[in-house]
Amino acid sequence: MKVLHSLILVLIVGCFSPALAQQPVLTKEEVIARALEENFGIRLARNDVEIAENNQSILNSGYLPSLSGNAGANYDINDRLTEPDGREPVDQRDIENTRYNASINLDYTLFDGLGRLYNYRSLKEQYDLSQLQARETIENTILQIMSVYYEVARLSENVGVLEESLGISQNRVTRAKYQFQYGQANNLVVLNARVDVNNDSIALIEAEQRLRNTKRDLNVLLNREISSNEFKVDTTVNFISELELESFVDQAELNNVSLLQIEKNLEISDYDIRISKSGYLPTLGLTGSYGWNRNESAATAFFPGSTTTTDGLAAGLSLRWDIFDGGRTSVQIKNSKIRYQNQEIIKDQLISEVERDIANALGNYRNKLYILNVQQENVETNMDNFNRSEEQYKLGRITSIEFRQAQINLLDARTSLNLAKYDAKLAELQVLQLTGQLLNVEL
Asked: The pTM is what?
């Protein structure tokens, strides 16, 4: 009878959701791969990395010279009145003069007190920092996406459990009708069974709606078509071994992305101090130019018209040393040192917070695993109780109300098990994120 009952349940579930069985499975690997390519936050983070990469280029370092070109033309027309002593005045009209010039100028800083060198190294560190910031964004996004993914998985399994429960209730209605027809039960038993079917149907409809909504949430995170709900997810959950997890915790200080970022900020602050100190040293610059000039002058009363053309090279060195700049450099150095001290304080605080967060997350994870084991035992107990109650109900030894209670207990136990399973997995993911291993393990 149990085998026959199971076959009936399979047929009922299959008929109730034929489209679900044909839906493609969206695996965890596919979700993560698409997130890395299409998620809006990750795409923005990658653009920030690209900007930082451009900034740390040699083209933004100040090591390359600047080359500029200048050209110009001037034209003027004047009236001139000349009054020489003892002679008649000479009045000239519309005297034209034209001048042309062109030059190429080279400027290069040979030495600037090493400020350029430290700034270039600082830009390199800022690029590394931007990569760590992008990694943090990716980790947070993956954790968010997997939370939604596992919620889809949980709701999918809950829908399956509710479908089976609805099938059981529908069988009860059929059995109650037969009992009523043969005078073995009154009409109240049939009505109670129908009420339970209605309740189970409502619960199933609500669960299916939550599932559709959560699938839309996942589609938004993956930049997929919002209405694309015809997919299933992988409900398999695997946990990392305790030994491997402990090794991750031991190396957390070397891999936690927040701690790595503060180390980069310390290095950048150290370079800021050195850049400020470069203001005490002189600046040596090199200049060079090639120029061309042409001047066309009209004839005057005393000089004939002429055209003059000149061209040539020029080069020079310039030295500038701010012996005293009003204390500006000294103030900059003091402030840079204070900012460095602030970064050290933040580092100490961050180390304590990360240690606390890892301890909390690890304790929460182990607690969730314990709850998962208890819930598995609870399901086994309730399954055994349900099977016994089903046999007793068929033999007429217990009422439909008692059988319904066994059915509800089993339903609650199975949905609680689903919740415990995915809660434990999400707790594990939080530990992996804090230890810097979220992107290095198979989820």
From this structure: 0.84
